[in-house]
Design goal:
Blueprint: H1 5-21, H2 28-35, E1 45-47, H3 58-65, H4 76-90, E2 97-100, H5 103-114, E3 120-125, H6 130-137, E4 141-146, H7 155-160, E5 168-172, H8 184-193, E6 199-203, E7 229-234, E8 247-251, H9 253-259, H10 270-281, H11 283-306, E9 318-322, H12 327-336, E10 339-341, E11 351-355, H13 359-369
Parallel strand pairs: 1-10, 3-4, 3-5, 5-6, 6-7
Antiparallel strand pairs: 2-8, 7-8, 9-11
Helix pairs in contact: 1-2, 3-10, 4-10, 5-6
Bound molecules: pyridoxal-5'-phosphate.
Length: 377
C-alpha cells in the first residue's frame, strides 16, 4: 500500500474501528503496515536529509502506537518524567535538561535567547544552517569561519572573531554537511580561551555514529565543568524519529533557566514522549542502528573509491564528496532520476552530500551517479 495521508487515515481509522471491539488505540500491526508499505514507482529515494532510512525500532513503534489514546491530554506529567529519564541517562540532575521540538528548537532558543542586534554569532562554514538563520532573526551579525583543510573547525580563526560582544558560538560535531569531527582536545583548549560571557553550543546530533572515531569524545559522555556549554542532541538520527520532533539540551541550570522561557509551551507531543522512553531503553535497537550505519558507510566508501572518488572521512550517517561538477546540476540530475541528495553548501560548490540509505537505495544512487558525464580533478 503506498504511503499517503489518505492511507494513513484509512489504516489509522481501521485501527480505531477494530479497537472499538477489541483494544484501543491503533494496533501495532496497523502501524507496522504503514512502516513496511512498499515504495511506489514514483516515490523518490530520499538521501537528502540525513534521516534514518530504517525508522524507529519495533519497540519504539509499539510504544508510540499504544500512546494514541493519550492524545487528548497535555503530556505534562510525562514531560517531567522524560526530562528526568534523559538526565539519568547522562548522570545529571533534571534542572540541566531542556526538551525541544527537535534539536532545531534548542538551536532556536539558544540564538533568540542569547543574541541581539549589535552582538556577534560565530560558526564554521559550511555547517548546519539553523543556528545562523535564527541568529540573523535575532538581529546579530554572523561570522562564518571556513573549516580547516581537514574539514575540522578552525578554532584559532574562530577565536580571532570572538570577543566580549559574542554571546554565542556554534560548533557542530560531527559537522553537518562534511561528516568530519573536531577533536576533543582542541575543543577543550578552545572553550578554555572563550571570554567569560560567551556560550558555546556543541551540536552532537550525529554523536552515536562517531563514537568509534579517533579524537571524538562527547561533552555529555565526558562532561567538563563549564557553565558556558550547551550540548544538544536529537532523537531524529540514531533513533529514527525525525518526523516525531524531539531533541534536548544539557547545560548548567542557570543557562537552562535563562533559555526555558523561549521554548514553545507543550513543545513535545504525547506520542514522541512515549517513543523516547522506549528508544532509550532499547539498547539493542540503538546498537543495530549504529551497526547498519557503519556497514552503509563502509560500502559507500568502497563504491566511491572504486570510482576514484575521495569522500571526506565520515563520522556520521552521510558523506560528502567532490564530484568535480557544479553541484546544482548534479543535484538536478539525481532529482530527474528520482533520487534526492543533499542541498548545495557553499563554498563547497562541487561537493554533494549523500545520506546513507538502504542497500537497494544506495545501489540506485550509484547507478544514477554512473550516468553523469565523468570528470576528474
Ligand atoms: C547538525 C544538526 N543539528 C540539528 C539538526 C536538527 O535536528 P532535529 O531538529 O530533527 O532534532 C540537524 C538535522 O539534520 C542537524 O544536521
Amino acid at each position: 500500500m503506498p504511503f499517503s495521508r489518505r492511507n494513513f487515515l484509512r489504516v489509522a481509522g481501521a485501527g480505531v474501528a477494530a479497537g472499538a471491539v477489541t483494544s484501543l488505540p491503533l494496533s501495532a500491526t496497523a502501524f507496522r503496515s504503514l512502516k513496511t508499505a512498499p515504495r511506489t514507482a514514483a516515490a523518490p529515494i530520499r538521501l537528502d536529509s540525513n534521516e534514518n532510512a530504517y525508522g524507529p525500532s519495533q519497540k519504539v513503534i509499539e510504544a508510540m502506537s499504544s500512546a494514541f489514546n493519550t492524545a487528548n491530554r497535555y503530556p505534562r506529567h510525562e514531560y517531567a518524567e522524560l526530562a528526568q529519564r534523559i538526565a539519568d541517562m547522562h548522570g545529571v540532575k533534571a534542572d540541566r535538561v531542556l526538551l525541544g521540538c527537535g534539536s532545531s528548537e534548542i538551536l532556536r532558543v539558544a540564538a533568540v535567547g542569547l543574541l541581539a542586534p549589535g552582538k556577534r554569532f560565530v560558526q564554521a562554514s559550511p555547517t548546519f544552517e539553523t543556528s545562523e538563520r535564527f541568529a540573523k532573526l535575532a538581529g546579530a551579525e554572523v561570522a562564518s569561519i571556513p573549516l580547516d583543510p581537514r574539514f575540522a573547525h578552525d578554532l584559532d580563526a574562530m577565536l580571532a572573531h570572538i570577543d566580549a560582544s559574542t554571546p554565542l558560538v556554534y560548533v557542530c560535531n560531527p559537522n553537518n554537511p562534511t561528516g568530519s569531527i573536531t577533536s576533543r582536545d582542541a575543543l577543550e583548549v578552545f572553550i578554555s580561551k572563550l571570554p567569560k560571557g560567551t556560550t558555546v553550543v556543541i551540536d552532537e546530533a550525529y554523536h552515536h555514529f562517531a563514537t568509534q572515531s579517533a579524537g571524538y569524545s562527547s561533552f555529555l559522555d565526558r562532561p567538563i565543568d563549564d557553565g558556558r556549554l550547551i550540548v544538544s542532541r536529537t532523537f531524529s538520527k540514531v533513533y529514527g524519529l525525525a518526523g516525531m520532533r524531539l531533541g534536548y539540551a544539557i547545560a548548567a541550570p542557570k543557562l537552562i533557566a535563562q533559555l526555558r522561557p523561549y521554548i514553545t509551551p507543550e513543545n513535545v507531543n504525547a506520542l514522541v514522549l512515549h517513543a523516547a522512553f522506549a528508544a532509550m531503553d532499547d539498547d539493542q535497537g540503538v546498537r543495530e542502528s549504529v551497526e547498519r550505519n557503519a556497514d552503509a558507510r563502509h560500502e559507500f566508501f568502497t563504491q566511491a573509491t572504486a570510482r576514484m572518488l575521495n569522500p571526506i572521512a565520515s563520522c556520521a550517517n552521510f558523506a560528502m564528496m567532490d564530484v568535480h561538477h557544479p553541484v546544482d546540476g548534479v543535484i538536478e540530475h539525481f532529482r530527474k532520476n528520482n533520487v534526492w541528495i543533499g542541498r548545495h553548501f557553499p563554498p563547497l560548490n562541487t561537493y554533494i552530500r549523500v545520506s546513507f540509505g538502504k542497500p537497494r537505495e544506495m545501489q540506485e544512487f550509484w547507478r544514477v551517479y554512473d550516468l553523469l558525464p565523468q570528470k576528474t580533478a
